[in-house]
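Sat 14:20. Reprocessing the chain from the morning session after the first attempt stalled halfway. Input below, unchanged.
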Amino acid sequence: MAQKITDPLSFLTNLLTNKGKSDLYGIYLTGVNVLAECQVDYGYDVSQSLASSEVFQLLSRESVEWNEVLVATRMGIHETVNPISFLRQREPITVYFLTEGIEMSAMVFIPTLTVNEFVTEVTFYQHLLREVALFAGKTPTSIRLTIGAVSMEWDEVVERGCAREVDIGF
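Finished this time. Tokens:
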């Protein structure tokens, strides 16, 4: 019986190693969807305080746009979907905050990502959804990450035990 996948990183790694395409540098997969729960601590080795400070920096850096989204999510009269786009690590990101009754979830679109960056991104978007939901008076639920292309270098694939390094002697 296969081992049960309990966290988004395991799911992504499993998906990438089983369905990914290989090239000279590693393996990659396009059009990946991963679901993460907002209130679950997955035990990733990521500084929670750093993620929280990055969220506050983002909110203050583009405060006018964020204030519009925050107010719209709190009022929630006309819109159940509140989108915002911004740059994160030189990548254009779009986040849709979805309100359903007293709950709020998020859909995040990320163009490219490596598996090593994934845990930081999950933690960051957990904090972001918590902050927006707190302001709106909603309960944060889940985050759906849609990644255009995710990759893992060969060294990382071998390190994680997903492949074996083979010496071919001539």
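The longest helix spans residues 115-136.
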